[in-house]
Amino acid sequence: MLEDLSQHVLDIAENSVAALASSVSIEIAEDVPGNVLLMAVEDDGKGMSADFLERVTDPFTTTRTTRRVGMGIPFLKQSAELCGGRFKIASTLGAGTRIEATFKYDSIDRPPLGDMPASVMVIFMGHPEIDWTYRHVYNGKDFSISTVELVEALEDRELLRSTEVGLWIRDQIDEALSELRN
Ligand SMILES: Nc1ncnc2c1ncn2[C@@H]1O[C@H](COP(=O)(O)OP(=O)(O)OP(=O)(O)O)[C@@H](O)[C@H]1O
Ligand SMILES: [Mg+2]
User: Fold this and answer.
1) How far is the CA of 38 from the centre of ligand 1 (A)?
2) Does domain 5-180 sit in CATH 3.30.565.10?
């Protein structure tokens, strides 16, 4: 069941969409000298009750109706813990949710980053009604892109759905990530 981190990001971001968030921030932070890779997704969606939150990392807990088993959160938790990292979730009903997973950077079981630019493109294009922010930190240097500014420049939210804009977003992130790694 090995997954790329970018696929975990897609999964966890879809939960925020399902929770009717209007604003979601996604963060990836690579700290190579500190041997930590962090992934965090924070939203202002409907949140979870304390009781539900206690059960949500159990693979048999879900509110989805097409199948019984919700897997996004249990998978991420399992993967982080397998890699000497930690999994944290904080949620307040009616206010929002923050999910954070860390991995030992050099763990042989650590999921590769995968294609983050493509995943972010898919997320932004798929849900233009949401204000998205993607931030990527590499050894203290950071890059971020927000659909709030894009929408301001485009003057039309729906343009976020266009292939042209989507590919532009992907390329921007791609370039920024190679610059961070230089
Ligand atoms: N950001 C969130 N805000 C509010 N509720 C959430 C959030 N993330 C998860 N949940 C709740 O936790 C449940 C479990 O989430 P999880 O991603 O593990 O499985 P799922 O979304 O139900 O199914 P899958 O991800 O496998 O398609 C969800 O059904 C939802 O009720
Ligand atoms: Mg899910």
Assistant:
1) 20
2) yes
